[in-house]
Amino acid sequence: MNSRGFSILKLIYPFRKFLPEWVSVLLSLKRPEEEIPKLTKAHFTTGLYCEYHLWLNTYEPRPDFDPYEHQYISPRQKSALRDLSQLLYPNTKNVRYSESETRRILNSGQGVRSACLETEKFSMKTEYILPNPEQAGTFEIVVLKASTSFKKQHIQEIAFQKFAAQEAGFPVSKCTLIFVNSKFFYQGKIQPEEFFVRKDVTAETSLKDKETKELADSLYDLLSRKNRPARYLSRMCSHPRNCAYPEVCLTPKIPGDIFTLREGKEESGKFYEKGILNLKDIQETENLTHRQKTQIQASQTGKPFTNHKVFAEFLSKIRYPIYFLDFESINPPIPVYPNSYPFQHVPFLFSLHVVREDLFGEPESFYYIDDAVVDPRKGILEKLEQWISPGGTILCFNDKFERRCLEESAAAFPEHKPWLKSIQDDFVDLAKPFWEYDYYHPDQKGSTSLKTILPVITGQSYKDLGIKSGQMANSEFLRVKTEPLSDSEKREIEKNLIQYCKLDTYAMVLILRKIQEWVRSHPNPDA
């Protein structure tokens, strides 16, 4: 369509509903230019994941969809990393993502911080754009990533930044990726040159030039469409279970629980293509795993599956006293505590329930939270050494995490290593039989997390707590350590953290009681 024809369409577009159907169809092919957003890096990366998601999230966004829900690095932490990286480029001018200022400063020969360049179709923002003295008249793009390694998807993102900058009239001859040095040992002071790793990715990015241009043009064309593009299970989909728009994306065959099949990405896709939308409708189970068969059995009967023999063996390993232990930790990119590494999980809180003799009696309850006076790892080790004696059972839900926290804490405070060695054989992982589906309830929907197991077994849940997940606990305490909160806000967060952590350990008490009830009700599990 030529520009004159498209201009006519724009003129009559507001009156489209009054026009004959054939005209409406014609109008639906393209949107007026002013309605089409510039393609950004966020659009580009979303399109890499799922083209349909890109279109829907742009024009029909779900009000309850939070694109940051599963991001582990908060915007404030990313901002802190950007601020720190400025020390690597002290002669750059901060233009706060102003497109006109970016052009003006770059044309004057100075480097730019918080840069932005745009064309009619594309928009890019990046941490730094610098004149490249090695090639006069060209520029270097610098991209900061809140990670400790170079990842494949980083190249795709930088390739888009390079493409958009060149479309805007600024030739790019060098691309640099900055990420965090995982081996940087924080001792109270950050040295930017040691904290960051700078990697030249010019060669890798250049290999993506042709592909990036084609994809960027294609995604912009997608955004210019008036109607939803036709699609079914995008080749980019990691798993339909993660789809943000299943009611649109998978219509008319809206799946039930078929995509909750454990470790069944390919299998569940095959069942779906055959028209099987629910686990209970699966008849062919010969090639499925034990866990998948257990899921299907529970869905078909509507009742939980319990391997009483396994739980009898599990219970036989339990020795009194029983110590139910859980940690909460933070793992910020910029360390908060001396003698720690970037992204290292440092525990700041533990909850401990202790059952001396009677599992159905009232357990003792202890906790410790960072008091801002001593390193919390030291405080935690001192309290746990006081309250946990060797020879009993230390019960955790996924004990690898608690073991690692203790080992790394003892590495920082080695005077506690003898005690830690004395309890090494006392750990028992309560998560293991649930991970193996020796118990499975159809309401679990494939999940084996403590937050899922507790309600299906006991009827209790985390829904009324101020903090409902470990990631939320991590984020909230990091706010306490790094943001200017009032004393009342800090006290409220601390109260919520303690309540959450205490429920984690008390949940294990309740679950172990239920296991004992199962075993008592089936004294001869082999019979």
From TrEMBL:
Mind telling me which InterPro entries this protein's record contains? DUF2779
Ranges for domain DUF2779 come to 323-449
Output the superkingdom of the source species: Bacteria
Q: Which Pfam families match?
A: DUF2779
Q: What is this protein identified as?
A: DUF2779 domain-containing protein
* UniProt organism field: Leptospira adleri
Upper classification of the organism: Bacteria, Pseudomonadati, Spirochaetota, Spirochaetia, Leptospirales
